[in-house]
Amino acid sequence: MAAPNTNLLIYLKQIGTMPGCRALHLHISNLPKGVRTRDNITQAIGLLNDLSRRTPTSRVFLLNTLDVVFVSINLDTGLLRQTASNIHKIFGREPVGSNVYTTEDFATLIDIAANDTRLLAYAETLFASNVAEPNADGKMRGSVQIYLQVMERIGSTDISTILLSQPAYATVAEGKMVPVFREMYVSIKALEDAFCPGASLVKRRTLFTELTEHLDKAVLKVVARQPEFGHRSLSLNLNLMTLTSREFAAFDGAMTEDQRSKIVLEFHRNDVVANFALFQRLAPSLTERGYSLCIDALDAHLLAHFDLKGLHCRFAKLFWSQDALASGNALRDLIAERANRDEGVEYILARCDNAAAIRLAKHAGFSLLQGKLIDHMVKHDIPL
């Protein structure tokens, strides 16, 4: 993911040429590969974090290139240079070749307040290279600027007006359906209409992934500050990387134990597979704090390979499709076999928008249903 690069670019645009603002760019990517270890980088960031305690407005960015950027306000240049020297000693080697500023230095001090735009230009180039998607003509597709503007506005705008919800229902006596939780999600169409009329945000997959991480943080802020959300069960679709952010830490800190017990955190199966080590590390602590976990967008084939109990999941969500219908018997056998093993997982069939989806849910043994047809049936008191 390119989120760290994006965050740096947005932060630099936000602070502009704030008085006293300086940046320290550590060119770790130019060091020999053998010394660019996790331990060395962690020690380097630790020294910068120690330095950041002297000013509440400092930020540390670990870029995808492994370069580290430290942005501070009103810190003495001598102190910044000394810290850079101490970090250089941790790695113990000289850079190989020229850095992005065409010098062979390990560290570059940039005076942002004096309108030194080198770091901003580098951040823009880095972001563009990460999100570029060539089309058939080999040209850059989409406007990076549109996405940057949307990302910046998301951080300073109340998105509650475009935050929608859809319940997931369980069936009780005589086919009556009752809501178990409400899935909160942002209407992308409303987002486009509000922030970039006439432009499509979903067509550029890499850019859209970037955007969803910023949406995650905006949604967390909305949920945390609106008391009514704390009194009902809900689910939030989040990127795994969002769980490592300051925004999620603030959200978690604002929740009571009772409120956490009413929150389901949903993660897309692709995100779990791509960041499996991170998921394994975070899942136990999340459930210990009271959250319920759900893996989203599974299918019959993938479900067979997921040890949901071992992954601390309470829910697994599959989407209705013609392929799902063709796998009806396999799903039935798999769900039944796991129930016999006391797996403790509840299966959700989502996008139930037609009668065939409901027939599949009954046949395969799904315990929860979600979709437009289900909403319609509940609204008009039609039993399942």
From TrEMBL:
Protein name in the entry: EAL domain-containing protein
Q: Which organism is it from?
A: Magnetospirillum fulvum MGU-K5
What InterPro entries is this protein classified in? EAL_sf
Task: Identify the taxonomic lineage of the organism of origin.
Answer: Bacteria, Pseudomonadati, Pseudomonadota, Alphaproteobacteria, Rhodospirillales
